[in-house]
Amino acid sequence: MRSSASMVIEPPPDGGMAAWMVVLSTHLVMMDSWGMVNSFGVFQSYYMTLLDRPPEDISWIGSLEVFLLFFIGSFTGRLTDAGYFRPLYIGGTILVCIGTFTASWCTKYWQFILAQGICVGLGNGLLFTPCMTITATYFAKKRSLAFGITAAGSTTGGLIFPSMVRQLLPTVGLGWTLRSIGFIQLVTLIFAGYFMKPRLPPRNSGPLIELRAFKELDYTFYAIGAFMAFWSTYFAFHYVAAFSRDILGLSYPSSLDLVLVLNGVGGPGRVIPGYIGDKIGPVNVYMLCTLITGITMFCWAAVKSVSGMYAWTVVYGFVVGGVQSVFPSGLTSLTEDPRKQGTRMGMVCTIVSFATLTGSPISGAIINFQGGHYLGAQMFAGTAMLLAAVFVFSARLVKTRRQGFGIVSGAKV
Q: Which is one Pfam family of this protein (predicted)?
C-alpha cells in the first residue's frame, strides 16, 4: 500500500458530478449555519422583548454563535487535512440539531446563551471550515465561483428561516418555530453529508498551527483585513430590524421584511463577485467589495425614510455578500500547497472569530451609550470596513510585487 506522502495528487477536476454535488452539499451546510447567523436579526428583536434585555446583551447570543463557528477553525482545519472530516461532520450535525431543539424550550437568557450561542456555534464550527476546505480541493480555475455558490446558501437560509419565524411565531410560538427549523437542519445536513467526500489523501504530519505562514506578508495583511471586515459585517444583520423600528417607526412584522431583503439580495451578491473573482482574481475582488461596503455603511447614517432604508438595504445586502463569499477564495489563493488549505484557512478563521465575537456587542454598547442613537455604531462599522480594504490592498501589493508587477497593474491576484 502506498503512503499518503507518496501518492500523486491529481489536479482539481474543476467540475463534474462529484465536484458540483460537493458544492450543492456545502450550499446546504451554509444554509443551515450561516443562514441562521444572517437571520439573527429576527431573534435579536424578539429576544429583547421576551427576555427584557438591552441590545448588547442579546447580541452576545448571535456573536457567540459566529465566534465559535470561526474560532475552532484552526483545529477543524488541521483535522480535516489529517483525514478526520467525517467525524467532524457527524459531530457538527449532532450539535447543531441538539442546540436548535434545546433552544426551543429555553425561557431564560443564560439558557439561550448555552443552546443557541454555544452549542449551535460549536456545531457550526465543526462544519464550516471542513466543508469549505473540501470544496476548495475540487476547484482551481472555478474556485471563486464555487465558493460564491456555496456562500449563497446563507441567502437560502436567510430567506427561509426569517419567513418561517414571521409566519410561525405568532401562531405556534417560539418553541415550535425553532423545532421546525431544527427538523429542516437535520434533514438537509444528513443529505449533504452523503455527498461530502474528501478528495485528497490525509496529511498526517505537520503542526496544528503553521506560524511560518505569518512570515508571508500577503497572508498576514489579508488576515488583518479579514478581521476588520468581519468586525463590521454583522452589525447590519443584527440591527437593521431594530433600527427600522426604533428610528423609522416600523412595526415588528414590517421590520422583518428588511431582514428578508438583506438576505435575498445577498444571493447574487455572493455568486456574481465569485464569478468575477475567477476572471480578475479573488484578492482584487475582495479589496473592491470591502471598499464599497465601507462606503455604503457610512451612507446608512443619511437614511431618514422607510423607502431610503429599503434602498440602502438592497445595496448593502449585495455588496456585503461579496465580503462574505470571496473571503475564503482570496485566502486559499495565498496558499500554494493544497494539502495545507485546511490549516491555513482555519488559522485565519480563528483570528476572525474574535472580530465576530465583539463586533455586534460593541455596536450595541455604542447605541446604548448614545441613548438609542445609531450614528456612532454606524461610524465604527464603516471605519472598520474601510480599514479592511486598506489591509487587503496591502496584501495585494505584496503579492503583485513578488510576482514582478507594479502597484496599479492589472495583475490577476
A: MFS_1
Residue with cell 446563507: 154
pLDDT at 3: 43
Q: Is the pTM of this model over 0.85?
A: no
As given in the structure block, the three cell numbers for residue 118 are 454555544
Residue 201 C-alpha cell reads as 489523501
Would you say residue 253 has pLDDT above 80?
A: yes
Domain count, the chain: 1
Q: What is the pLDDT of residue 290?
A: 97
- Give the pLDDT score at 405: 65
Say if 44 falls within a structural domain.
yes
The answer to the question of residue 54 being in a domain is yes
CA distance 182 to 36: 11
What would the 3-class secondary structure string for the chain be?
CCCCCCCCCCCCCCCCHHHHHHHHHHHHHHHHHHHHHHCHHHHHHHHHHHHCCCHHHHHHHHHHHHHHHHHCHHHHHHHHHCCCHHHHHHHHHHHHHHHHHHHCCCCCHHHHHHHHHHHHHHHHHHHHHHHHHHHHCCCCCCHHHHHHHHHCHHHHHHHHHHHHHHHHHHHHHHHHHHHHHHHHHHHHHHHHHHHCCCCCCCCCCCCCCCHHHHHCHHHHHHHHHHHHHHHHHHHHHHHHHHHHHHCCCCCHHHHHHHHHHHHHCHHHHHHHHHHHHHHHCHHHHHHHHHHHHHHHHHHHHHCCCHHHHHHHHHHHHHHHHHHHHHHHHHHHCCCCCHHHHHHHHHHHHHHHHHHHHHHHHHHHHHHHHCCCCCHHHHHHHHHHHHHHHHHHHHHHHHHHHHCCCCCCCCCCC
pLDDT at 4: 43
* Residue 404 scores a pLDDT above 90: no
What single-letter amino acid sits at 351?
A: I
Q: Which has the minimum average pLDDT: 6-15, 151-160, 217-226, 349-358?
A: 6-15
* Residue 194 belongs to some domain of the structure: yes
Residue 330's domain spans which residues?
Answer: 17-199+208-402
CATH of the domain at 381: 1.20.1250.20
Arithmetic mean of pLDDT over the chain: 90
Residue 157 has pLDDT above 80, yes or no: yes
pLDDT recorded at residue 303: 96
Residue 160 predicted with pLDDT over 70 = yes
Tens-place pLDDT, residues 38-75:
888 888 878 988 999 988 899 899 889 989 998 988 78
